[in-house]
Records
---
Amino acid sequence: MQDKAGSLISSKQLIFMIVGTQVATEIFALPRVVSAKAGEDAWIAVILGALVPFISLFLIERLGKRMPEMGFTQMTQALFGKIIGSFLVVIFVAYAIFFESIVVRILAEVARLYLLPKTPVAVIIFIFIFITIYIGTKGLRVIARLNELLFYIILLNLLLLILIPLGMADYTNILPVGEVGLDGLVRGALTTGFQYQGIEILLVFYTLVTKKNEVLKAGTTALAITTLLYAGVVLVCELVLGITSIQKLIWPALTLLKTPQIPVFERLEFIFLFFWMGMGVRPLLNMSFASSLSLSQLFKIDQKKYLPYFMILIGLGMYILALLPHDIFVTYKLADYAGYAFLVIGLGYPLLYHMMAFLRGKKVGESG
Amino acid sequence: MKKITGKPPTDDQAWKEDKQKIPDTKLPAALTEKMQMLKPYLEKSHDIISRPFYLEGKPPLEAVSIYINKVIDDEDLNQHILRPLMLNCKRDSIKELGSKNLIDAIYQTSITLTKISKANTLPSLVQNIFDGMTVLMFDGLEEVLVIDMHGGEFRAIDTPPAEQTMRGSREGFIERLDINIALIRRRLRDPKLVVEKTMVGRRSRTQVAVLYIEDIADPQIVTEVKKRINEIDIDGISASGFIEQFIEDNPYSIFPQVYATERPDRMEPLLLEGRIGIIVDNTPLALAVPALFVQFIQASEDYYERTLFSSYIRLMRYAALIIAIFLPAMYIALLSYQPELLPYDLLINFSKSRMAVPFPVVIEAFVMEIIIQLVIEAGLRLPNQIAQTVGVVSGIILGQAAISAKIASPSVILVISLSIICTYALPSTSMVLAVRFLRLPMMFLAATFGVFGLSCGWIIIQAHLISLDSMGVPYFAPLAPIRFGDLKDAFYRTFFWKMNQRPMSIPMQDRKRQGNTGGGSNNSAG
Amino acid sequence: MAKKWLLVFIIVVQLISLSGCWDYKDIDKLDFPAAGAYDLHQASKTADTNQEEEEQTVDLTTIIPNISENVKEPFRIETTSGLTIGNAREPKVYSDPGTYSPGVSGVIIFGEDLAASTGLKNVVESLSRAPQTPKTQEFTIAEGRGESILRVPIKDYPSMADYIEGLLRQSHQRGFIPDATLHEFKTNIAPGKNPIMPLLTIKGEKVEVAGAAIFKKGRMIGKANLNETPILMMLRGIKSTGNIPFIIKKDGKMFDKGSVDIKNSRKVKVERNGDDFTFQITIILEGSLAEHQTDKLFTKNEDLRKMIEDQIAADVTEDSKKFIKKMQEEYQVDCIDISKYALAKWRKELKDKVDEDFIGDVNIKVEVKMKLNNVGELT
């Protein structure tokens, strides 16, 4: 039974983990970011943008199939040799820390704006990281199950976000369809492509899935869910707020929740944030677990025993990085770089590995 | 690893460890020598009675019966042992029966009780006496008769005080193990119901019975439970709570991981769902493992009332759980961090009622919470009649006085008492304790970080619940890992004729529960 | 052992944070305004009419409930001024020990002069920037000064704020009152759209709704009186309910007279022929007969129902045409919210010019479909 082993996940849990890594803070700003490029057709761009992570998924899955028993670190070292391999793993870990430090910073900024205006951002980030480390040390089993449970709460939350304001929709806001042209659509789609960051955890998690033949299906399902959620939120934002307003809002998805007139209780965004703040740690958890796993494999030490120390180390790294940006706009600038980094890790890595595996031929499989 | 053998507890393993205290010698034949050997063990215990008598014959056979006063049934002793042996047992006629072994002949012809065994070593003799057996020793015979005739005064079967129902059985477990097992046997006449007895406690030698249905319960879990019980090494246990604390998976957790019930009719469905029952002698509370979180929200009444109402009331109970944990914390968070969240009129009312109180909301709420917790604790210790009065007095008078003394605002008293009421809407006493405890850290979090703190608390509680195990089974099971099939008995209770499968969350061998396809006239399809 | 250290660590962190409590505030030390009114500062208006726009100051009038039991007055009304809205809150610090906590008031009143001179677009900025404000605050325009409306004494309600909020919240469901929230105002200053707001006035001792204020983007440019407002709302497609009268004349004599409770909705079609745009507005009215004052029975006069429907349709069409003419000639602003349909078809092309006298040059046709659903208990 995979539950008892505690080091494997089912393909169903993989869906939740991928969705859990993807859907976090991007969704707040997504309507603004995409509609800046794709205008009224932002929601189409979001759907098109899913191609980027899908290619990444496909490449990683093929790669995993080539060497199904090898973990990310072993695979890298087998392909590129000890030194270059270790270097590549360290880059991956650095990317994970960078990406998550931005996520945690944006979460903290949201918390600061809406909930704790005077609390120093360092304290808020510290709490996020502390929770991440606390849960992370409980192991993969707990992380996977937490992702699973929270997935349904995310669904409920986003349905709240999508359905309740829908009564104020104005359909003329998204018409005419397709006027932005191919150019705008492609640029919008590329921008959204970055927002699907998180699929790259499959590099690490592939070996941990019990049924390897279901990985592609699970990954596709996860991407479909994320795409639907993203497109839904962007569409409703456009319908209700219109893209002129969206451009002026820092987090349109949150402002959206303030618009409906509900008797007695009008502050939907607080309910949303109450659930979302806690759930914000999901990508941190998944990513920091993936990177500490890779690190422990790199140093070839007992994973169970040293995992907490790696988690603490990575948490510290995230903490320091997250405090570096001066304000939210710098953070979003950095988020753009994280998006480019995603292209390198999500698309470049698997391509590179494939090429290397092709060059090395069959030898690798045997030596592994 | 030790194993439960299923034999009667007379030659139990646990005793062997302490064997060195009593020299392991065979019993001599002569009665006086036997008495001499026993003397050091018996002379300091004045409640042990040795009653010498003679069996009629030529020459008369000298015999002694030894027993602990009031542990055995006096009537049985007189009627079924002393009377037949002294008046009817003729040594010669026994010999005539052709029995090779005199002692066999004695009990086969003259003793009209059923639970009889023999012993021939000093340790087993001594232990049998202290286990409450009646021992018959005869002159010239090395073996002694050990007769189980436990009796004496016990509490009668009574309604379970903490888990009362309107429609269920009125019987609750009592302090006698055998009766408790019988209560379950009466409800569950399945030949596959296994009852295995063992002993825990080096000195107390408490009998513990492990119950499960052989072809439903998962053998791995059964072995695990037995292993954990057998590994308990303690001088004495006085209640089933001891066992619970020794076998639970996460002793540092606030949540109960072993289900305790005092209702045999609650135990029965648990056994049918593949759980393992543990009944401890002298405790009217039976345990069941593996326990799931949702189980502590289910009450036996849920199954006796009709489906729709049961589901409604169960949903209410979940609401009560959330209110009980979060309401005071939410109150603090709203009033001191996010007041703009409240509707305007309520906001003004709150600030009007707060105006007179000199303390911050946090302190006000903490003080009230602690006072009420103490009132509850005091109420538990007091005799029933006084407890009610004290409850009313402290509830009304203290609350009123606190308001007029401007120590607390009416709203805080409302909030705290509401959360207390919701706490006691939960059917399981052990979950009530967990919730009572959990409220305080939540209030702390709300006091430091408001709604944000609550959000963090919520996720930590969740992660903690998910990380728990009960006998290796995920504790938060139908929710995480989510099992849609089991949700029909988690948040609500569906119709019995729709529960085709036993819960997936508990590992077991046989999943099929029932075969009906519909209620009422549709029933025939099964 | 590790668990023990973890526990100690958590407690220490908790205690440190408790000692911080950066955002802790006591609810009874906060001032929650029930309503706010923004006006152009009187002195700056009278002293120098040619004053530079950026130097004009704003008056902020607030109703704040008194929470102490010892004060007889249920609330206090204060006026402070500053360069901007946010700045106008500042002087409260000097006169009020409570911390002013904006963002809970349900009603914001703008003075007519403020709305007409500087426009509200930038004034509203402060409200939509603050995270604690809901986007559902009711916006309204006061004839004259907003301050004077808040200062009208009121008996039946706790304060003027409650009265106005009750008057305006979801008011389009009660009658032909076009309510507007912060959110609606913000979305309606997008290209192709223009906001409208309810207009309040003081009549004798009472505050009343006096129609609608018509905006060009953020700036108020006109008023629709109580007769025009229902037509404006029907044309604009704000779903509302209300009662409208009818008089049917036959051969110069009065044939029937009465009123109908109606619900309205609209459909808009836009067609294009080169640079000529034609909007076809269909107003759909549905309703039930409230009364008719003659003894004619529906059972006997089979065409009576048709006559009532036709009469109302004709009345509304005529008024609509009048209003559209006024709109195209006088306001030159699309206050009936139809340009968006043209934008929905040719957004790229029209985006820049839709707000520049586009509406003046288009053809607008109105058709009214009236349907009398039922006539009540009487025949």
Note: The CA atoms of residues 287 and 379 of chain B lie 26 Å apart.
---
Amino acid sequence: MRSVDVLVVGAGPAGLAIAGRLAAAGAGRVEVLDRETTAGGAPRIRRPRAGRRRAGAAERAGAVVRTGVTALGWSGPLALDTVGAGGHETITARAVVLATGARERPRTAQLVAGTRPAGVYTTGELLRAVHGYGQRIGERAVVVGAEGVSYLAVATLRTAGVAVTAMVTDLPRHQASAVRAAETRLRRMIPLLTDATVTELLGHGRLSGVRLRHRDGRTTTLACDTVVFTGDFVPDQELARRGGLALDPGTRGPAVDGAFRTSREGVFAVGNVLHAVESADAVTREGEHAARHVRDHLAGEPWPSTLPVLVEPPLRWIAPNRLAPADACGFVLRTTEVLPRPLLTVTQDGRVLHRQELPGTAVPNRPVYVVGHWVVSVDPLGGPVRVTARRG
Amino acid sequence: MTVTTGGPLPHATYDVVIVGAGVVGCAIARELALHPRLRVALVEAQDDVGQGTSKANTAILHTGFDAVPGSLEARLVREGAHRLAAYAAESGIPVEPVGALLVAWDDEQLTALPGLAAKAEKNGYEDARFLGPEEVYAREPRLGPGALGALHIPGESIICPWTTTLAYATQAVRGGVDLHLNCRVRQAGTGVLHTTRGTLHTRRIVNAAGLGSDILDRDLGHSDFTVTPRRGQLIVFDKFARELVRHILLPVPTALGKGVLVTPTVYGNVLLGPTAEDLDDRTATGSTPEGLALLRDKGRRILPDLLDEEVTAVYAGLRAATEHDDYQIHARHGQGYVTVGGIRSTGLSASMAIAAHVVGLLAEGGLDLGVRDELEPVRMPNLGEAFPRPYQRPDLIAADPAYGNLVCHCERVTLGEIRDALASTIPPGGLEGLRRRTRARAGRCQGFHCGAAVRELLEGRRP
């Protein structure tokens, strides 16, 4: 058994940022583990240099970055069992930071029926196959989803010489930047089929097509040898769950307060394990910001009790989703419906704490940011804080 | 050791050719390999062993308590289950003796339980015991409300069907059996098989062709049975669901039909299914939106919390059902031909006894088996969570760091295991075969993290 001051699990942008800040601030021995063979997290797949730069910065600040090491589970409240080519090791820490990131939900979790042919991808697997290994993908693809990452999948397929037959979304519109969506549809001539769900995969051995059900009940078949399921991100929360940390039912990641504290004293969580998903830049800033709270904890600041922050439909989730009295933080949330100029209301025990009309349109799968200056008026002895939204 | 995947077939005449490398065909091949003087081939239409009904079943090692008393199936399941349990222990095939509960949810099911207990006794199974609702909930606290009682069958176990089939085939090949993959029989006659890879001559033919067994039977002039593929769709839930259930939860069969089961798997998942749909299409191995919705409805009643867990796989298998209640195992001595048809969902449990029975029939028909030798024991890689996996073994990692190098994180599959599978006696033909041998890509992310790396290893380029 070995002891460190701070053990960070996950060497993506958030984990490396918090580790670098903590090491630079003299937090003692700061160690980052990553189960992949190279540090950098998801962004490294397309931009290996950016991954190396972030890992290098953390190391120069004094953090130790160890790749090819998997945190298997917990052997104590602040002790993790690890394995790697060097064997097993239990590492204890004064503070543990979970920065395990997020992944896309595959076809199975989305309960898409049909056969089990080759040629079925998530964007994550596609990016690794194309940028990491230069593997052959196929001839004709359908992309399921129309959010930012879906357009990244389209671009990657084109790089790999795969023609994109169509993009399909069960929502009434795309959920990406208007410029990108228009460019793909008009210049690349890739049709976007809205209000349509992929219900079945066809073909034995190799995919031969996908069956769609349209909102009006019609079904159609698109011929293709490749299908990419994009978006539908969920936190990689296995370690949090194995440790018995409270999870938020909305985000499905660990529940945290405005200082990134989980339900267990000494365990923090940062990055896309809290809110799947934000950009590398956003989670880097988050990691840098969270470092201060870990330092406060190491300096003896007590672990506070917290209140839940709940959302009601059509809102899907909010993060952070717990509140401690001294929290001063912003929030990010998601909606399941398209809401033009949404009116947001925050209440506690029927008392209105905050009302805000947001500019523009809230769109599913895209972040909605909410200021948090109202947090000071939360009654720490009161009931849960509720956030609702309706069309403005 | 001979495994061929393409090219011409040997010209020499075999003593026995077995058609179909499912769990039954592989068990027969292994049984024949005990007789080193015999020249035996196992031919398979697909690119791997166990690619048909054998790969998509409920992975249960049955006691045979509910078979038709006095039937051949009842005898062979009973004998086969004992033999396979011993073989599994010796070969490293994961088995967990979790026991089964037949849970009664209404009065009709409750009144059916004593009859099932009596049937079990007729089948020589005497450990069945009735449990009242309190004991049922004590054993299965997460069961949905409304269970009225259950019949406990402590002898039912869960097993890895892929490792079983592969163990038989591996031992057979190491024992001298030729395995010809990608070799579909187009037409058969007495002593001759015309395949997609050329013609094979043989003194005896064993038909273990599963879904195609009636077609082969007709080629040889018999029409004793017709296979009606019965599709069973199944849903596999994430490993986090494993703690929700302790036993195999079997449905109580009544006049209204058979329900679905919920069972843990040796890999630590939970299985829900199967549907039972009679089809005409022998290739309809797809799941359907309706089938999955039906399973989820039934599963919600049995184990409500199960539906909150992620689904890691959905699959459908075709069982080779016939119009008969019993196995269709017939010897045509004059023709040098044995049919092994109508082996339904109990084929895995009965496989070793079926093999012994079939070899007995061949000998009865005049096949000189020659001397009988012991086979070199086989030790299969462990895929079961109840036994130490390579990543959990410091001794293995110290000897070879590749067993500490995790490639598939969800299923914790190491580089060492993937390398071993690729270099094994019967290497995988593709990603699906590699998954069945190692569990690589079988977890909750389905290859999001490791898919490309695993494909790279399979295609032999770089780690």
Note: The helical segments of chain A are 13-24, 48-60, 123-132, 148-159, 178-187, 238-242, 280-298.
---
Amino acid sequence: MSAKVMPFAPQATMEMPILVVEDVVKRFDTPEGPLTAVDHMSFSVREGEFVSIIGPSGCGKSTLFSVLGGLVGGYEGKVTIEGQPIAGPHPAIGMVFQEDSTFPWRSVLDNVAFPLEIQGMSRADRYARARHFIAMVGLEGFEKRFPAELSGGMRQRVSIARTLAFQPKILLMDEPFGALDEQTRLLLGDKVLQIQQQLRQTMLLITHSISEAVQLSDRIVVMTYRPGRVKRIIDIDLPRPRSIDVVSSEAFGRYVAAIWSDLRDEASRGMNDAEARQRSSS
Amino acid sequence: MREARRYRLPPIAFGLGTVILAFAVIEVLIRADVISQYVMPTPWQVLLSFGRVVAEEDIPHRFLATAGECLAAGALMSVFGMLLGVALYRFRLLRAATETWVAAFAAAPLVLAYPLFLVIFGRTAWTIIMIGFLSGLAPVALKTLEGLTGVRPALLNVGRSFRLTPAQQFWKVLFPAAVPTIFVGFRLGFIFALINVVGVEFLINFGGLGQLINELAERYDLPGTYAAITFVILVSVLFFIALEGIERWLRPAS
């Protein structure tokens, strides 16, 4: 089996895409002049699909996450969900953030029930639904605990459960396991995979981990380093349902190698750029 | 439960032991004439004077007067201090223009302006309450501002991603996240308010424990004076316990 590496082109999809990103450009004003973080990016995500966006640090992944989540405006191009252009946070999108975003003053149960409380759901109903999603992320028995009593990985699972309880059509995750050790990442990746397969949840993951992207995705969008453009879109033709065992397969290694060959030059440019900035500032 | 008590008891025992030891050392120093007994009574004499002060000086009424003034000053300080803090957070121009002034106001010896307050409010409890309120206002406002600006962006983004209204964003995310810092402001403000309440009671010879301290000092009743000071400390302790309780209720995980 070889990695199906395709140059970027509009995709001929069998199904209607649920999310379409068309020619998005996002610029920021900086003291050194305008900085293009995302440059003419286009891709789409089909219902039930797991798509990862991968790129070196500083390539604009998190900016794209904020654009898709409706947290930043003032960009060119168009983002549509089921054909509707988005302007601000959209009810069809649930977001999981890179940093710990659990509310320290709420128990696990109250954290997960938070979006349901906002929707005005009755206490009994929201707790019942929250318990369901807490069990789904494997945190049964921790309902009464507070985030300070949990590990980093457990806190991220609380965030995922909270966003799933919101029942979004698309789960958008920005490096949710970025701060965790490799083994925990693999195990949590497996947990996300199980949830995605169980719910047939459309997921869009922003990551800089190649192995995480290959382990989880149906397709991977590889980004260039500054300005962030689509370099390639790679179909991951690994069997589904997938488990953690996939990481030890030969095909997995080939995909990782193929993506790394795409990313190596971009990562080097990023590193050189960071070093140059370091030198000029010292 | 037993486990929690095991962790809580040693610090309490250590604290009480330290206080008793300090009193014992002071007792010895006074008896040995290292500290003059005309300046400071022995802790034992203070202890013996409690019964007399309570019976003869109408302590319950005075205690309630001072506690009531502190409560009124504290309530005003909390409400208006928080409102000012929120206004400074919301309006950047206001913040840029006045934050330094508010900080300077926190350090102003407001008690010296008591004649002005006497003219405005007369020799009534309102003079004491208003000076207490104003002296605690700046710390509450500044700490509210600090608490709100220090809320992690990720928490705010969670609120935005769930499409919270501005009021929900404030009450469900911003305020609870800022509670620990705001309560530091309440504690600081309360300390300032209590000092000023008792100070003004002393200066204008009106109200509760401050007036009693004044009268007992005038009579050169040193053990009684120190006993009355102990009741001021008791007011402070009660308010701190109440604040801690409210904070734990608002932020159970604190």
Note: The helical segments of chain A are 61-68, 108-118, 123-136, 152-165, 182-199, 210-216, 250-281.
---
Amino acid sequence: MFRSRAYFWFVAPAIILMIVILIAPVFVAAVLSFSDYNLGNPDFNWVGFKNYAALMKYSSYKKMFTASLFYVFLVVPISVGLGLGAALLISTLRFGGELYKAVFFLPVMATLLAMAIVWEFALHPVVGVVNDVLRSGCDIGWLHSLLTSSWLGFDPAQSWYGNACADDFPLWLGDKRYALGTIAFIGIWQAFGFNMVLYLAGLTSVPRELYNAAHMDGADSAWERFKLVTWPMLGPTHVFVVTITSIRSFQVFDTVEALTRGGPSKSTYVMVYAMFEKGVKQNLLGVGSALTVVFLAFVLILTITQVWFVNRRVHYA
Amino acid sequence: MTAHTNSFGEFLKHVVLLFGAVIVLLPFYLMISYSLKSPAEIESNTGGLIGSQQIMTDRRCIKEGNPPEQCEMRPIVYNYTAAFKEAPLLRYMMNGVLVTVSIFLIQVVVALPCAYALAKLRFWGRDVVFGLVIFCLLIPVHAIALPLYIMLAKAGLTNTYAALVIPWTISVFGIFLMRQFFKTVPDDLIDAARMDGMSEFSIVWRVMLPTAIPALLAFGIFSIVAHWNDYYWPRVVITGDRDLMTPPLGLRMFKSDLDGNEYGPMMAATTVIVTPLVVAFLLAQRRFIEGITLTGMK
């Protein structure tokens, strides 16, 4: 009868699409990573591990791994920390919490590519607002002495701000010392509201009684209550937020492609951008596929670590 | 603790949060402000939020041989008309709507029956299929972009609407989410429908779909926001054909065409692209936050 077979028609399209669109590409990438395949040329050779060896050998790929890892190590702790901080402040506010929440969530919603372009204008070395504001701070005595620590008796010329005032402020995206940090700043700006929302959800699930119990045990200061109750009870949220932020920041592309194209001198040459440049722009699909495989391995390691943590460490209840 | 220290603490929290809010809102403020001001005001950072709105002359318009009096306009008019004229912004927006809506509809058509079967029907291999769904959840989209691009190129599909939509037709996350939701629907409801002689097919679309509206709404917000904002995939499969570009890709092309002096029109285009989602978010914050944090489960 039709009924007994209905499941087949319900499940088959999804299975076929999963296999063709999600699983087959992984194998295609794995196979092509051992070749010098390119589009437009029907012949290609098997080159063994040459593509992988290239990833180990050339300095541009070393710079790629450095840039990607550095970006992740900048964005993850700061955006998680800011997310947690914002959530803690907002959840204890008497009024206005909803408003801050909406404001901090705005960057998550807004088209990242578009906002990256706005940041690029804001960070423009000559006409940009950021350097404009920083420059005008140099002429305000108390601000200058605060930011250069000269009010503590330090020499202003020793500080970053004092130097920048005397000389000039950075080119930000155009300077290889600052470019990756600037891209990371935009990443943090975009991501921390997302983490904040996850932490706010986590905070509502901390039982009130635990705070009373901690109070009875003599945990009087807010810091002690945080250390004894809030932080450990947020365990599952921590694992979750850290993993998802790591995976996402590992996939950074939009800001790099639009603002720096991996430069200056490959300082922002992150993995997904390298994949795009080698595979799509330069039609070096063998190398691009090898990059894809390495990238996939990184992400799977992150995900498996998360699952392992969730199963092992964070069961308090 | 006294009330006095409490309100001082509250005050401090507001100071910190306000400082954060200023930084978060800075680019939004700049975007709107630049989209209203004249080139001179943008370059000198003067004019406050909306600029002086003095009549300016459109140099390009003069170059095209129009009489000068036709080329005089206020900066706000100049910026927004230029945005729609120089870049086919309307076309980009239409493409964006077409692509995001088709993706969402196909995702639902594929995922809903599958989720229903996984949640409510008993059949041989069900656990295997569910295992496959969970496995596919682990595959990050960026990792399969390159092989997918090769497959689409081999099929001659790059630079088509199909290329923009096909990779997203299957949402394993959607299947997973809907399955979890259908698990909570009482079996009695389905049995009653079967008693009434409904086919499994009409149970999916006439019984399960209406019960799933809240979950679908959250998933829809997630899907539409993700694909309206997506830049990576359109950048890979659309090369040069402007008629197919989605808003972020179109904006990127606009940026590379700039002769350096067109910040105003550029920011006007940015504002037009960012506004729909931001306004929708402000109108239905709770739903949006729910929908987007769903990715958390991914």
Note: The longest helix of chain A spans residues 59-91.
